[in-house]
Amino acid sequence: MRLSRYFLPVLKEAPAEAEIVSHRLMLRAGMIQQLAAGIYNWLPLGFRVLKKIEQIVREEMDRAGAIEILMPTIQPADLWIESGRYDAYGPEMLRILDRHERKMLYGPTNEENVTDIFRRHVKSYRQLPLNLYHIQWKFRDEIRPRFGVMRGREFLMKDAYSFDLDAEGARRSYDAMFVAYLRTFARMGLTAIPMQAESGPIGGNMSHEFQILAQTGESHVYYDRAFEEIDFSAADLDVDRLKSLYAATDDKHDPARCPVPAERLRAGRGIEVGHIFYFGTKYSKPMGATVTGPDGREVEVEMGSYGIGVSRLVGAIIEAYHDEHGITWPRPVAPFEVGLVNLRPDDSACAAMAEDLYRRLQAAGIEVLYDDRDERAGVKFATMDLIGLPFQVTVGPRGVKEGKVELKERRSGARSELAPESLLDRLTS
Ligand code: ATP
Ligand code: MG
Predict the structure, then answer these.
(1) Residue 277 alpha carbon, nearest atom of ligand 1
(2) What is the pTM of this model?
(3) Contacts for 317 with CB less than 8 Å, ≥ 6 apart
(4) 156 CB under 6 A from ligand 1?
(5) How many CB atoms lie within 10 A of CB 374?
(6) Is residue 274 within 6 Å of ligand 1 at its C-beta?
(7) What CATH number does the domain containing 318 carry?
């Protein structure tokens, strides 16, 4: 992508209302723009990151055996009246009347909707286990939308729903999601600590929140420092051990009863990026979602639900990866992998080399944002540092004479001079 033809409305100053660094940087880097309180336009740079995160979540859900569907944003109230949640949910639910005065709502979550799909099509235990998920916008009329996309009113969530014949099967489904979550966050460069949680308004009897550590997190968290030694990207994670390690948010943490000795206890602040629940027959019972069991009897299915805050993750990753100059994206979620800067578009040798490199990087399958603008070098470097692409490649008159370009790793700041061939090798290895 040529920056001269792109839409990247960077700002010099972040609007005063942006309190936390990720919100400020997302506005300054032209990633988002607020349309109404807690409702955002996703501009090209931000939208690319959102899609990368969504794709990692999708791949790990698929790998864990979940099956993707798409349920609508607007739902009829009837299903929620059936489950008993229409009145229970409260003012966070956006309630709508259609032209026939039928009660509708903008979905804050989809348990009822997916249970309805299930009960219409699944009749036998032989069709289980089943896990259906989607990645869809939600609306919750949060009392205090804040921190940009971290607590929005409209936000993108991945929500998966498991159906099993019995509690033992449901636990296996839960554990598969537990592991998938750790892998998902690890792929984005995040360490998310699973914390035992009560399940709040959704109800249930087993639940974990996944919290990443960040100073601006909304929750205070306490955890066994043993978590710091775990490689969450490992192929075989020991779920039982992970579940047995102590980790809790402050509402659950009681210093007097904490099983972890003080020298092993870590305290910090966390951002909740995922939440998983096992809630048994909470929806299958009132909504009549049953299957015929092996003995011919009708059984209410055991369910769980599993959410990931896809749009919240964009902010959460920036909270974890930034410095005083801007964002420092982990490569798997970066909007582009390489920022190519031509320092002298007016110099024909520089232009020829930059154009050639741009073509070759693209041909090698690398996503490049090419700053071909007629701008001062300082402006170009500041823009690149702000938007935080993992690699910056600079073409300037001095290097061109020697047939070299400069490579800078954004996060470490490490610089090297390379011939274009070696650069391509480095970036594709
Ligand atoms: P929170 O305690 O942060 O309000 P929740 O318990 O209401 O979260 P869930 O219903 O479990 O959240 O939703 C699943 C995930 O969706 C959460 O873990 C979070 O990452 C994300 N999420 C929830 N509410 C919002 C919001 N208002 N804005 C952005 N993401 C959200
Ligand atoms: Mg909430």
Answers:
(1) 11
(2) 0.96
(3) 49, 53, 188, 189, 190, 329, 330, 333
(4) no
(5) 9
(6) yes
(7) 3.30.930.10
